[in-house]
Amino acid sequence: MTTPAPGRVAIITGASQGIGAGLVTAYRQLGFAVIANSRSIAESSDSLTVAVAGDVADPTVCERPVQTAVDRFGRVDAAKAPDIDHQTGPHT
Is the pLDDT at 90 greater than 90, yes or no? Predict the structure, then answer.
């Protein structure tokens, strides 16, 4: 059984396609607000899904999703980076 999580906030990288996009959908269905990060990502019409564009392989970008979550929702409860296992370095 899955426990709903209203009021919780997740950051998901690689969120524009594939597993990352699936995680955004799954977390929203559970009631999480989601900070969706990808190098190229469209804004969402869902007020609880916030798009933050940028490549987290760049250290100057890494703080943006976290800061957005804290500024917008006051917390971070989960972070998922589904593409991290497949990277050997920055995306080109």
Answer: no
